[in-house]
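Entry for the shared binder. Reason: the reviewer on the internal report wants the predicted structure included alongside the sequence.
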Amino acid sequence: MLFMLIVKASENSQEGKLPSPELIEAMTKYNEELVKAGVRVLAKGLHPSSNGMRFSYLKPGEKPVITEGPFKETKDLIAGFILIDVKSKEEAIEWAMRMPDPQGHGEGQVELRQVF
């Protein structure tokens, strides 16, 4: 079963601030554990929304409206993701619970979603 651990953005990640060396070390260790267990499929961080664009499909059959970032509502943004292949939802939850605070400032949030 495929699950995505979606790392939500924060003001720090949107400002392009790099994580502390301690957090980089903790996340590296976590990713190594995922690889060693044979469950990690892919893990990537994303550039801040200032480098992104949104395509809004406002009317069926018409071209989308393009809005360039940055986007202000950090609660709606994604800073990165890890795709895991596990045997059950419970195993996915266990892996999610082991992830260090991905923002490292007590503002991290991870969303767990199953992939179709």
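Summary line for the report: Helices lie at 11-14, 21-36, 89-98.
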